[in-house]
């Protein structure tokens, strides 16, 4: 766990943010940025789900975009794709341990978003 709050509170106005924290934030944003990744991850927090069910859960996403985003999340070890050898072929997606570890981040972002929306609107 980082002590970013403590570092910020102790730092003077001219001190630089530690490089490893900047890199960690950049890495995080590279993995979860975009319009669709967080809704996909949030949908998968409830457990295994099929492609069609993800399409139904996430309003306005196209099949092509969902496929692209799932592949990127798979490359980044956030999502795992499991193919069952049966007829018809069954494919399910689920979060990896790394993907499930995003729950606290998503929960904090939802809290912030609800507060922000009520203050702005």
Description:
The structure is a single chain. The protein has one domain: Winged helix-like DNA-binding domain superfamily/Winged helix DNA-binding domain (Arc Repressor Mutant, subunit A), CATH 1.10.10.10. A hairpin with a 5-residue loop joins strand 2 and strand 3 (90-95). 59% of the residues lie in helices and 12% in strands. The chain is built from seven helices and three strands; from the N terminus they run αααβααββαα. The protein starts with a helix and ends with a helix. With 121 residues, the protein is mostly helical. InterPro entries: HTH_HxlR (IPR002577), WH-like_DNA-bd_sf (IPR036388), WH_DNA-bd_sf (IPR036390).
Largest sheet: 3 strands, antiparallel
Overall mean pLDDT score? 92
SSE series: HHHEHHEEHH
Structural class: mainly alpha
Biggest β-sheet: strands ordered side by side in the sheet = 1-3-2
Strand content: 5-15%
Write out the CATH superfamily name. Winged helix-like DNA-binding domain superfamily/Winged helix DNA-binding domain
CATH fold-level assignment: Arc Repressor Mutant, subunit A
Number of helices: 7
Distance between the amino and carboxyl termini: 34 Å
Q: What's the CATH class label?
A: Mainly Alpha
Q: Residue ranges: pLDDT <50 for 5 or more in a row?
A: none
Which architecture name does CATH use?
Orthogonal Bundle
Total domain count: 1
Query: Rg to the nearest angstrom?
Result: 18 Å
In total, how many beta strands?
Answer: 3
Protein name: Transcriptional regulator
InterPro entries: HTH_HxlR (IPR002577), WH-like_DNA-bd_sf (IPR036388), WH_DNA-bd_sf (IPR036390)
GO molecular function: DNA binding
Keywords: DNA-binding, Transcription, Transcription regulation
């Amino acid at each position: 766990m980082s002590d970013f709050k403590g570092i910020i509170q102790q730092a003077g106005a001219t001190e630089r943010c530690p490089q490893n924290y900047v890199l960690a934030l950049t890495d995080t944003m590279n993995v979860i940025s975009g319009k669709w990744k967080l809704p996909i991850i949030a949908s998968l927090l409830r457990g295994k789900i099929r492609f069609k069910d993800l399409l139904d859960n996430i309003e306005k996403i196209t099949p092509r975009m969902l496929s692209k985003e799932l592949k990127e999340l798979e490359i980044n070890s956030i999502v795992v794709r499991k193919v069952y050898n049966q007829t018809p072929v069954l494919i399910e997606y689920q979060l990896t341990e790394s993907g499930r570890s995003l729950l606290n981040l998503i929960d904090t972002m939802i809290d912030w978003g609800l507060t922000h929306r009520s203050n702005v609107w």
